Amino acid sequence: VYLHCGPNAVFLKDHPEFVKRDQDGKIICQSWNFPAINMSNPELREYLWKNMEYWVEEFRADGFRCDVSDGIPLDFWLSARERLEKIRTDLCMLAEGRRREDQLKAFDLDYGWGFQWENAATFRAQWEKMRDERPRGGARFIRVIDNHDIANDDSDNRIEKAWGSRRVNAALVTLFTLDGVPMIYNGQEVADTARHSIFGRSPIDWANGDTLTGKARFAFCKQLCQMRHAERALTHGSVVWLDNDQPGSVLSFLRRTSGEEVLSVVNLSNRTTKLRITLAESTSWTYKTLIADAAKVEMDDNGPVLYLGGFGYLIGTRK
Fold first, then answer.
1. Within 10 A of 128 (CB to CB), how many other CB atoms are there?
2. Rounded to whole angstroms, what are the CA distances from 140 to 58, 183, 199, 285?
3. Span 172-177, average pLDDT
4. Structure confidence at residue 137 (pLDDT)
């Protein structure tokens, strides 16, 4: 967290100039009422770069998740990347921010903020907007339903509790088959509903992993991970959106490489839905099911008809 520091940061005694101060010498605080780091100070920058190098050199850290990255001058991150790659060439840098220029060189991924899950149509529209806002496209996003900021809520509003297991499963299927990098938030793999707080140290309820719901979620997440590793199109394929006649309820898209294709159809509503998808081979069904729930495919004179139960889904690969 290089935007600010704690009020008792160890360097403040010997380096009071490492934080911003007003004309009277009083510390200037950032948005969260913590002392603002003085990025105009060359010694402060060197201190932070050496801090990052230390973790990579001594502990072989894989990379860094950089808090409020777009609140920090880009040239700081560019220099950090250049220095760190001299130690570890396969370093991964994750930006918690939205600045377009961050992904040109300094960072590999950003948080992909912005998805709202009201319905399938708004979800697709947001994907298209986010793709256009980032110079590298959607493959450079972390895809999340929940994270420490969302879960850190005084009203005890955990998504797992608000949505229920079936809706969360449908969302996870979407994240694992869409472009980008899916992230399972701590405890989500056991359907944890306990309140979390990064300030109050409210714990993850790992005991939920012994419940039927928790065991089912854990097995489901393992299945999603195995599928993603097995199907190269899910990590290297482009996204091709497919129109369907229930766009407010159902997402339908392909992940496609030159020789592979995976189809995803996910019902984001709680209603049983009958639909047709616009496919090139509209009079046939050429997909082998990888995973499915509450899904059925029938054929009539006009081609395939899909039936999806509430939060049902079907993921298939071309035969």
1. 13
2. 28, 13, 30, 32
3. 97
4. 66
